[in-house]
Specification:
The structure is a single chain. This protein is mainly alpha-helical and 138 residues long. The chain has a domain of 95 residues. The chain is built from 4 helices and no strands. Helix 1 packs antiparallel against helix 2 and helix 2 packs antiparallel against helix 3. It starts with a helix and ends in a 20-residue tail after the last helix. The relative contact order is 0.10. The model has no long low-confidence stretch (mean pLDDT 80). Pfam families: PhaG_MnhG_YufB (PF03334). This is Multisubunit sodium/proton antiporter, MrpG subunit. Keywords: Membrane, Transmembrane, Transmembrane helix. One of its GO terms (molecular function) is sodium:proton antiporter activity. InterPro entries: PhaG_MnhG_YufB.
Length: 138
């Protein structure tokens, strides 16, 4: 088994790594110029910092229940953080809250232009068509 002193050192190192990730995310949020850059700064260190804190908790409390709970937390966070950042990025793009001069390649502009020309937002992939009312009138 790991002695208590080594366990405490590992825990301190993991908490410091997590604090460094949180600090990097905060600096990135303050320093980066637009929404898309800030999203990158907020989401990447967040999941790494969460993993470091989860590992620190697991080192201090090595039980199956702790591992199961921490695994669920990390999986759900890893699934939801990128989706949330993607949706915020699309909203920022559509509402023009970004600096287009910082974009290297704009892959979304064609589909947004087509949607605006058609007058309706495009349906998400996999969305079934709207149901039709085929009842006779009268």
């Amino acid at each position: 088994m790991i002695s208590d002193d080594i366990r405490e050192i590992i825990t301190v190192v993991l908490v410091l790594v997590s604090a460094l990730m949180c600090f990097a995310a905060g600096v990135g949020l303050m320093r980066f110029p637009d929404v898309l850059s800030r999203l990158h700064a907020a989401t990447k260190p967040q999941i790494l910092g969460l993993m470091a804190i989860a590992a620190a908790v697991a080192v201090n409390n090595a039980t199956i229940a702790t591992f199961a709970l921490l695994t669920a937390i990390i999986i759900f966070q890893a699934l939801t953080a990128p989706i949330t950042a993607h949706m915020v990025g699309r909203a920022a793009y559509r509402s023009d809250h970004l600096r287009r001069d910082l974009l290297i390649r704009d892959e979304l502009s064609d589909s947004v232009d087509r949607a605006e020309q058609d007058g309706a937002p495009p349906a998400p992939h996999g969305t079934p068509p709207a149901p039709r009312d085929d009842r006779p009138s009268g």
